[in-house]
Amino acid sequence: MKIAMLARNPDLYSHKRLKEAAEERGHQLDIINTLRCYMNIASRRPEIFYNGSKLEGYDAVIPRIGASITFYGLAVLRQFEMMGVYPLNESVAIGRSRDKLRSMQLLARDGIGLPVTTFAHDPKMTEEVLKTAGGAPVVIKLLEGTQGIGVVLADTERSAKSVIEAFRGANVNILVQEFIKEAGGTDIRAFVVGGKVIASMKRVGAPGEFRSNLHRGGSAETIRISPEERSTAIRAAKSMGLNVCGVDMLRSNHGPVVMEVNSSPGLQGMELATGIDVAGKIIDFLMKNAQAGKTKTKGKG
């Protein structure tokens, strides 16, 4: 099998592990810098060029598209889909998961547990937004943030109003969510591949840090999740339409609540915490499922 991986940094742990896992199984995996691709959008003959050569003969594509290049990365991925190349995650599904508001709406539609989440355009609605979210403390999130960037904990009504009004005054879209105090600065990441949770870990925030992201100094350890948490993670992946994702959940007094569904989850923290060959399971999924033209969307919006 010949696999293309859309990624800008071939030296990242996740990208090296996926390449190793593919080659161990006798496959060819080429790491392609997403931004160096250019496309010929010709009627019935979609083509992608890379460093002056046409890309062809690929059976599958693994999109590892950074949040900062989502728009261009999804355009390249759609072109692969139109050429009949099987994507690990489809462009439409990645687009859903990258839009925090849309993803929350889809999860809510499917009855998946969420923290109370509010969204408004008018800064004059600040008091009503805070009241709907249950009052301070609240978590305020930029719609486009990743790895804990653009996430603020406002402890008091006064600080919450100041932050919300500042963001809205700068014309920045935000979500306001209830703060799940009982989670105690820890969250759970469940790694879903092909509709099954293949690994899970508990992440604990650094001292004085309410965010548990490993990029922000958090630590991780393996954890046994409950059947309800397992079901929530699988349903969240299905809501987004993702074959592979990391589902981040908090343990609240009313059951697991989903904070985010990550379409390009890092492998390092999960593999080191659990000892599970996550990269190998992803390649095995591709081996079993990759068929030419099997994309559901075929590049449709």
From TrEMBL:
<dbReference type="Pfam" id="PF18030">
    <property type="entry name" value="Rimk_N"/>
</dbReference>
<keyword id="KW-0464">Manganese</keyword>
<feature type="binding site">
    <location>
        <position position="260"/>
    </location>
    <ligand>
        <name>Mn(2+) 1</name>
    </ligand>
</feature>
<feature type="domain" description="ATP-grasp">
    <location>
        <begin position="104"/>
        <end position="287"/>
    </location>
</feature>
<dbReference type="Pfam" id="PF08443">
    <property type="entry name" value="RimK"/>
</dbReference>
<keyword id="KW-0547">Nucleotide-binding</keyword>
<comment type="similarity">
    <text>Belongs to the RimK family.</text>
</comment>
<feature type="binding site">
    <location>
        <position position="260"/>
    </location>
    <ligand>
        <name>Mg(2+) 1</name>
    </ligand>
</feature>
<keyword id="KW-0648">Protein biosynthesis</keyword>
<feature type="binding site">
    <location>
        <position position="248"/>
    </location>
    <ligand>
        <name>Mg(2+) 1</name>
    </ligand>
</feature>
<feature type="binding site">
    <location>
        <position position="187"/>
    </location>
    <ligand>
        <name>ATP</name>
    </ligand>
</feature>
<feature type="binding site">
    <location>
        <position position="262"/>
    </location>
    <ligand>
        <name>Mn(2+) 2</name>
    </ligand>
</feature>
<feature type="binding site">
    <location>
        <position position="260"/>
    </location>
    <ligand>
        <name>Mn(2+) 2</name>
    </ligand>
</feature>
<dbReference type="InterPro" id="IPR023533">
    <property type="entry name" value="RimK"/>
</dbReference>
<keyword id="KW-0460">Magnesium</keyword>
<feature type="binding site">
    <location>
        <position position="262"/>
    </location>
    <ligand>
        <name>Mg(2+) 2</name>
    </ligand>
</feature>
<feature type="binding site">
    <location>
        <position position="141"/>
    </location>
    <ligand>
        <name>ATP</name>
    </ligand>
</feature>
<dbReference type="InterPro" id="IPR041107">
    <property type="entry name" value="Rimk_N"/>
</dbReference>
<dbReference type="GO" id="GO:0016874">
    <property type="term" value="F:ligase activity"/>
</dbReference>
<keyword id="KW-0689">Ribosomal protein</keyword>
<feature type="binding site">
    <location>
        <position position="248"/>
    </location>
    <ligand>
        <name>Mn(2+) 1</name>
    </ligand>
</feature>
<feature type="binding site">
    <location>
        <position position="260"/>
    </location>
    <ligand>
        <name>Mg(2+) 2</name>
    </ligand>
</feature>
<dbReference type="InterPro" id="IPR004666">
    <property type="entry name" value="Rp_bS6_RimK/Lys_biosynth_LsyX"/>
</dbReference>
<keyword id="KW-0479">Metal-binding</keyword>
<feature type="binding site">
    <location>
        <begin position="178"/>
        <end position="179"/>
    </location>
    <ligand>
        <name>ATP</name>
    </ligand>
</feature>
<keyword id="KW-0067">ATP-binding</keyword>
<feature type="binding site">
    <location>
        <begin position="211"/>
        <end position="213"/>
    </location>
    <ligand>
        <name>ATP</name>
    </ligand>
</feature>
<dbReference type="InterPro" id="IPR013815">
    <property type="entry name" value="ATP_grasp_subdomain_1"/>
</dbReference>
<keyword id="KW-0687">Ribonucleoprotein</keyword>
<protein>
    <recommendedName>
        <fullName>Probable alpha-L-glutamate ligase</fullName>
        <ecNumber>6.3.2.-</ecNumber>
    </recommendedName>
</protein>
<dbReference type="InterPro" id="IPR013651">
    <property type="entry name" value="ATP-grasp_RimK-type"/>
</dbReference>
<dbReference type="InterPro" id="IPR011761">
    <property type="entry name" value="ATP-grasp"/>
</dbReference>
<dbReference type="GO" id="GO:0005840">
    <property type="term" value="C:ribosome"/>
</dbReference>
<keyword id="KW-0436">Ligase</keyword>
